Amino acid sequence: MSTTDTTVKSSPANEHGYKSFELGGFKFHRDEFFVHVTWPTGTHLMSVDTFLRALQRDCAWNFFYGTVNFDHVIGTINHYGNVDLFAGKFNDAYRTAELDHLENFPSEQILGTFREMLADWTNAGYDPFASPAETAAPWGVKNGDNTAAITRQRVAATRMVGVKGDEKIRSDESGYPVNRMFADVPQDEPEVHIEPGFESEIAAFNLFAYLSRSDVTWNPSVVSVVKESLYCPTTEEYILPVVHGNDRVEWFIQLSDFISWDVQDRDSGSPRAKVIMKAGDVAAMPADIRHQGYSPKRSMLLVWENNSADLPALIASGKAPTYPINF
Ligand code: PHB
Ligand code: FE
């Protein structure tokens, strides 16, 4: 089913102070602790903290690569221009019981509704991008908002951080203090001696110092762009708020500390692997899995993405493999 109406369908505040929202046959409603999602063949309940952390990333990442599972039932599939919203689609039990449901929307329509829902359901002091240890709680009746936190733009360089014209977060003057967990990270910058005439071509920066100032968790920034190759490092603490279903291979390089990954079959959710990554470990996540990471202490992870728009179709048609290397 497809619809082209891009106005946000919402109803006035309920007894808890929150608006309710509709997207096609899906209805979303929040109370003090839970989000209630209904669709023509079923209903689902999620804790509001889990829901808002996932919703924040789905909005900020413009639906990301492939599938963003909010949990084992609800999620979105990015078709890059239009987006599927689903319930139970990647859950064998829901499919067998014929409780699953999927509708397709233009990206602007679902993004418009998701952004308004995120804004209305985020209370003052709650930051869905932050580690749970660094934010107030999301619970209770409606109490103000947190527009500055939820409209953060992710930092995206067009060439490389440090090259003239590109963004950088590299000093106390930037307004980004070193995070409590990275107090031991040296802040010195590399010395660069450039041959005259090449000043706009050469740059170097301390990536560890840069990441030590990140105020968000599980939100990859883009620090370098070489054709379709994107280096997207990120700082991680607690649990990746979405279960990401890949539509391409991604590489992970664990830059510091430790993350444990649960890797499952993308479509059924059956377990495939546990990947334990310590500082210096490198892993490739195949294109037919979903995964969720657990980081017991704030850690630094480099996610390496191939941004080519051709990949999902090449992999889905079998012309490109779901894994990067034949051993
Ligand atoms: C991923 O799904 O691969 C992913 C997403 C966000 C992160 C790290 C990894 O911060
Ligand atoms: Fe992923």
Structural write-up:
- The chain is an alpha+beta fold.
- It folds into 2 domains: 142 residues, Roll (Transcriptional Co-activator pc4, Chain A); 149 residues, Jelly Rolls.
- It is built from 6 helices and 17 strands.
- The strands form 2 sheets. Strands 6, 7, 8, 9, 10, 11, 12, 13, 14, 15, 16 and 17 form a 12-stranded antiparallel beta sheet that branches.
- Helix 1 crosses helix 3.
- The longest helix is centred in the middle third of the chain and has 15 residues.
- It is globular and about 65 Å long.
- It binds P-hydroxybenzoic acid (PHB) and fe (iii) ion.
- Fe (iii) ion binds next to loops.
Number of helices: 6
CATH class assignment of the largest domain: Mainly Beta
CATH architecture of the largest domain: Sandwich
Structural class: alpha+beta
Biggest beta-sheet profile: 12 strands, antiparallel
In short:
The chain contains 6 helices and 17 strands.
Defining traits:
single chain, 327 residues, alpha+beta, Transcriptional Co-activator pc4, Chain A, Jelly Rolls, 2 domains, twelve-stranded antiparallel β-sheet, five-stranded antiparallel β-sheet, 6 helices, 17 strands, 15% helix, globular, binds P-hydroxybenzoic acid, binds fe (iii) ion
